[in-house]
Amino acid sequence: MSANHAKPFLGKRIVVTRSRSQASELSRMIEELGGIPFEFPVIRTDWPEDLGPLDLALSRLGEFDWIILTSVTGVEMFFERMKQTNGVLPAASSVRWAAVGSKTAAALERHGVQVAVTAEEFVAEGLLRSLGDQVAPGQHVLFPRANIARKMMPDAMRAKGCEVTEVDAYQTLAVTENVEELVRALQANEIHAVTFTSSSTVTNFLSALPVYDPRSLLSGAVLAAIGPVTKETAEDQGLNIDVMADTYTIPGLVEALARFFTTNSR
Questions:
Q1: What is the pLDDT of residues 207-217, one digit of tens each?
Q2: DSSP-derived secondary structure for 101-163
Q3: Is the pLDDT of residue 110 over 70?
Q4: What value, to the nearest 5°, has the Cα angle with vertex 170 and ends 120 and 233?
Q5: Which of 8, 94, 119, 132 is deepest in the core (most CB within 10 A)?
Q6: What domains can be seen in the chain, in order of their start residue?
Q7: Which residue has the higher pLDDT, 262 or 44?
Q8: Taking every annotated instance into account, which residue ranges of this chain make up the domain Tetrapyrrole biosynthesis uroporphyrinogen III synthase (predicted)?
Q9: CB 223 within 8 A of CB 242
Q10: Average model confidence (pLDDT) for the chain?
């Protein structure tokens, strides 16, 4: 195997837009394949402005038939708040847990939870298909989620006749650092790719560049999205996504981008 195939990112600077606390996995994988991660976090997570609804839900977990988590961040914030409020998990026989994605399921299992259903796909629609007929009308479902999470899944559960409680387990906030450095690197064509790992990374990335034409600024870079929802958000805002992961995970995104660079000299 040639060096370029072993290191498909050799010498390439790749922008990582994940939050500072989440960037390390993607940055490490970029480095392992010869690339140079340019960390430009455009989001950070924090507690919701009002913890009341989350605390109320945590105090009555035994009343729910299903608890559904859609991200690792949601899991960690959920259990951290449980610890802070001295919450107690309901008996395993009284509630079932579901997760979007294997990493979310693994995070739940690290907290001693047995996951009944894991999404076949790493999007909410995949979880809905995986749940199938296991969710019955009249059941009570809890969604601890991000403040900006999509409504498709809770609305679909309501359409099945479920009693759905949505609570913000965390909020996603926009941050901007090193904007001038990034703009200079883009203008000098020193950035080879920009990765988007959620719709909020797209929106906040563009918001960080208000005085620039993003399509012109990004014209020399390969744009990579983690999945179809992120891709759609980017394209709705006028960006052209060159690469989309087949599996909607960080490793899937890296694999798709590596394949692109291996087959396209750019």
A1: 888 778 888 89
A2: SHHHHHHHHHTTPPEEEE-SSSSHHHHHHHHGGGS-TT-EEEEEEETT--SHHHHHHHHTT-E
A3: yes
A4: 55
A5: 119
A6: 9-43+175-263 (3.40.50.10090), 51-171 (3.40.50.10090)
A7: 262
A8: 25-255
A9: yes
A10: 87
